[in-house]
Every structure is written in C-alpha cells, then in structure tokens.
Amino acid sequence: MKFLYALMLSLLVYQAHAEIEYRDFKQPEQEQAYQTLISELRCLVCQNQTIADSNADLAKDLRRQVYEMLQQGKSRQDIVDFMTDRYGDFVMYKPALKLKTMLLWLGPVLFLVIGLATVWVLRSKTAVIDEPLSKEQQAKLDSILDKGDDA
Amino acid sequence: MKYLLPLFLFIALAVFLAIGLNLNPREIPSPLIDKPAPAFNLPILATPEQRLSQADFKGKVWLLNVWASWCVSCREEHPLLIELAKQNKVILVGLNYKDEVQAANAWLSKHGNPYNVSVMDADGRTGIDYGVYGVPETFVIDKRGVVRYKHTGPVQPGDLEKVFLPWIQQLEAEST
C-alpha cells in the first residue's frame, strides 16, 4: 500500500515537471523581459494565444528562442525584429504603429467621430421643431384649441 | 433616397462580412518573399554523416517542402508531390521538421519518396528561420537563392498546374 501511495505521488511529481519550464536567469530584469516578451508574441498555431499561454510545440520552441537570445544579451528590439523577420507583423499581439496598420489603430477613433457626427447632424435636424411658431401657425393652433376635443 | 440609405449601409456591411468570412486566417503573408532563403546546414536524412546547405542549390530552381512523419496533412499532399517528382521538372528538397530519423525513413518507404533529398531539422531551428508554423509548407526558391513563393498547408489538387508549375517555368526562364 505504501508503495502504491509513493508511486501515485511520483506520478504527480512527473506531471508537474511536464507542465512547468524551468528557466534560469542571471538578472531579474532579464526574467522580466522574458515574461513580457512571451506574453506579447502570438503563437501562430493557436492564433488567439500568446506563446506564454500555449503548449503547442511551436510555442515551446519560440519560448526557447526568446530565452536563448536573452541569454546571449540580445535586446528586446533584437528579439522582436527576429520574430517579425520570420513570421511577419502578425506574430506581435500588439501590432506596430505603421502605415499598414494605421486603420487598425485609428479605426475606433474614426468610428467614434462618425458616430458623434451622426448624432450631431440628427440633433440639429430635430432642433427645427423648437423654433417659435409663426403668427399664422399660432392663430391656427389657437382656433383648433378653442374648438376643443369634440371637433 | 432617405429610405434607401439603411439598405445601402446593410449591403456594404454584408459585403465586408462576406469578404471577412472568406479570408483564411491561417494564411499569413510570409515576410520571406523576395528575400534570400534563410541559411541552413543540416544532416541529410538518408546519409546523416553528410550535410547540405541552401547554398548547394545556387543556380537551380528548387522547392523546399516542410514535412514530418507525425504530420497528418502531409499525407494528403503526398500523392501530389510524388506526381511532381515523376515529372522531373524541379529539385524537390524535403525539410524533415522535428522528426525522428527512424520514423521519417519508415514514412518515406511506406508512402514513397518524392524528394531528391531530405534534410533533418530535428530541433526545429531551421523551421523558425523559415517562419514555419503549420506543416506542411512549401517554398519556391529561384536560381539566386531567393524565396519567391510560399504555400502554407497541404498542396491541393490543381495547385501543381495552377501555381507551382507556372512558377517553376517562370523561374527557369530567369537568368542566374
């Protein structure tokens, strides 16, 4: 029984090992850079996950790549360039601000402006009703009101 | 006119959505197009003591097909690659991606070997250099060693005639 218990425990330990990658960093800043980078790079196999979230083989390889480049003393920009040279802008979760991605960045602002403009135009149209009645209109209104409901 | 405006807006929206639905989100444009094929120097699958590099194909038009024995959709395109190999019009190089020698060799002897030569990228580093994210992938490389076209996913029936053979023909006509 004790043996079985130990065996079960050892299975648990094995699982934990399979899930967690151990990375050794010399400086805490490097580890910080690693964590930031892997949460900004897209896993291209499972497109809505970052390589930090994904367990896909490619994500593992890309994490290894990021780690190794940091160990070699490469800067954040070096690593971003390395990735975009190979996988294109899509590999960055947050797209770079370029002419090509302008619509992506300015789109929401553009839609807000269109929306506000629409509201403004509609409001200025309805504002016409608030204008005071002309003399003729007032007279007509009075006569209708005088006759009462039963007319 | 006033009543037609919502209709036009609806049609415009429907058109955009239809375009969006028909785009393939897995088709990511490769930044490698018109750039030199990334360098590699990898052991040959059949004779691992020998190595091969992209520079060995200078002056020739060649295809680099990324494959693996574990890759299910590679089986789908395999008959087409065999067909291409029979026509003997282009050098077909296999990049055996993250695979094991035995499994890879067994796969080739079972399904047939369309490749002039396959090289082994056991740890997937050359794959990263080529921006590989979905095996199989096929690169068309010209005589100067420049990547001219990339096909992601399995080669479909008709792709050989419509895409690959015209590319090969065009690149063969170019001077080195």
TrEMBL record, chain A:
Segments spanning the bilayer are 102-122
Residues in the signal sequence: 1-18
Provide the family line: Belongs to the CcmH/CycL/Ccl2/NrfF family.
Q: What is this protein called?
A: Cytochrome c-type biogenesis protein
Q: Which InterPro entries match?
A: C-type_cytochrome_biogenesis, CcmH/CycL/Ccl2/NrfF_N, CcmH/CycL/NrfF/Ccl2_sf
What the protein does comes down to: Possible subunit of a heme lyase.
What are the residue boundaries of the CcmH/CycL/Ccl2/NrfF N-terminal domain, all occurrences included? 7-145
PANTHER family for the chain: CYTOCHROME C-TYPE BIOGENESIS PROTEIN CCMH
* Alphabetical UniProt keywords: Cytochrome c-type biogenesis, Heme, Iron, Membrane, Metal-binding, Signal, Transmembrane, Transmembrane helix
The keyword Transcription is assigned to this record? no
UniProtKB/TrEMBL annotation, chain B:
Query: Pfam families per the record?
Result: Redoxin
Q: Which SUPFAM superfamilies match?
A: Thioredoxin-like (SSF52833)
**Cellular location(s):** Cell inner membrane
Statement: the UniProt record of this protein carries the keyword Disulfide bond = yes
* UniProt keyword terms in alphabetical order: Cytochrome c-type biogenesis, Disulfide bond, Redox-active center
Domain spans labelled Thioredoxin: 31-173
Annotated membrane topology is: Single-pass membrane protein
> Taxonomically, which superkingdom?
Bacteria
CDD domains attached to this UniProt entry? TlpA_like_DsbE
PANTHER family hit by this protein: THIOL:DISULFIDE INTERCHANGE PROTEIN DSBE (PTHR42852)
Its family?
Belongs to the thioredoxin family. DsbE subfamily.
Q: What is this protein called?
A: DsbE family thiol:disulfide interchange protein
Species assigned in the record:
Methylomonas rosea
